[in-house]
Specification:
Oligomer: single chain
Order of helices and strands: EHHHEEHEEHEEHE
Strand content: 15-25%
Number of strands: 8
Strand order of the largest sheet: 1-6
Distance between the termini: 34 Å
Largest sheet: 2 strands, antiparallel
Number of helices: 6
Shape: globular
Structural class: alpha+beta
Length: 180
């Protein structure tokens, strides 16, 4: 799952109470949240553009932004794991991955549709929009069927015919085919 405009979806009034619940250092959280309220300016060729005033979200690229993202999603992902224990979710900042593998195709379809519904209707949080960049790598026809159901509900998932090995190992993105 890829979340559209993820950082813009993290509202500070939801975030700071979550930080407190997770025993996040509140002095750091408050300072970073205050910095999120400052105007920003894009530069081109060393020349600043006009000021962009933030609305209510955290800053993309903020050094503490990843920690804020994890705090924001922590309870929702915990609740999702409780609701769908057979479909664990891995978090990579604003990208969420699930492996859904049940005994029957119908169970796989049901769980994929439930997971999509969960992400778009998260309780106690701002609603997250699943990006059209989200994709599914089907192991069977169940994934294609679920993608069709979700399409009718307005959630588009690109169905990839097969996964692509990017040749990346998990150790600091070193390529497997290169020798040190």
């Amino acid at each position: 799952w890829d979340v559209e405009a993820f950082y813009e979806s993290i509202h500070l009034h939801f975030l700071l109470p979550r930080c407190r619940e997770l025993q996040f250092p509140m002095a750091h959280a408050a300072l970073a949240a205050a910095a999120c309220r400052f105007p920003r300016a894009l530069t081109a060729n060393g020349q600043p553009g006009r000021l962009i005033w933030p609305r209510r979200s955290i800053v993309i690229g903020c050094p503490i932004g990843t920690d804020f993202a994890r705090a924001f999603l922590h309870q929702a992902l915990h609740d999702l794991a409780y609701q769908l224990p057979q479909a664990p979710t891995d978090e990579y900042v604003d990208d969420l991955a699930q492996v859904i593998s049940n005994h029957t195709e119908q169970e796989n379809i049901d769980d994929l549709v439930k997971a999509a519904d969960w992400f778009t209707n998260m309780p106690n949080a701002s609603k997250l929009t699943i990006s059209i960049k989200s994709c599914i790598v089907p192991a069977d026809n169940a994934a294609r069927t679920a993608a069709s159901i979700l399409e009718r509900q307005g959630i588009h998932l690109t169905v990839l015919n097969e996964g692509e090995d990017l040749g990346l190992a998990c150790n600091a993105a070193a390529r497997r085919d290169r020798k040190s």
